[in-house]
C-alpha cells in the first residue's frame, strides 16, 4: 500500500470572480457576530480587572478620588 503513493502538483485553479466575491461577503457577514462576541469577552475581562484592588484607569491618569 505504501508503494502506491502518487504525488500531485496543482498548477492552476479556475474560480469564477463572482464566486470569490460571494465567498468574501459571507466571510464578512460571519465576522460580525464573532467580533461582537470578542468585544463582550474583552468587556467582561476589563470589568473583572477594574474590580481588582487598585484597578481602574483613574489611577494611571493622575485622577484620584480625592479632588483636593
Overview of the structural elements:
With 68 residues, the protein is an all-alpha fold. Helices cover 51% and strands 0% of the residues. The protein has one helix spanning 17-51. The radius of gyration is 26 Å and the shape is elongated.
Topology overview:
Layout: H1 17-51
Kindly summarize this structure in a few lines.
By secondary structure, this protein is an all-alpha fold. It contains 1 helix and no strands.
Described by the principal axes of the CA atoms, the overall outline is elongated
Briefly note the structural class of the backbone: mainly alpha
**Beta-strand content:** under 5%
Low-confidence runs of at least 5 consecutive residues: none
Terminus-to-terminus distance: 83 Å
Task: Output the keywords.
mainly alpha; 1 helix; elongated
Amino acid at each position: 500500500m505504501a508503494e502506491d503513493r502518487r504525488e500531485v502538483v496543482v498548477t492552476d485553479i479556475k474560480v469564477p470572480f463572482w464566486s470569490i466575491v460571494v465567498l468574501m461577503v459571507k466571510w464578512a457577514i460571519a465576522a460580525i457576530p464573532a467580533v461582537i462576541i470578542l468585544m463582550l469577552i474583552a468587556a467582561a475581562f476589563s470589568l473583572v480587572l477594574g474590580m481588582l484592588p487598585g484597578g481602574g484607569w483613574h489611577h494611571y491618569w493622575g485622577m484620584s478620588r480625592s479632588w483636593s
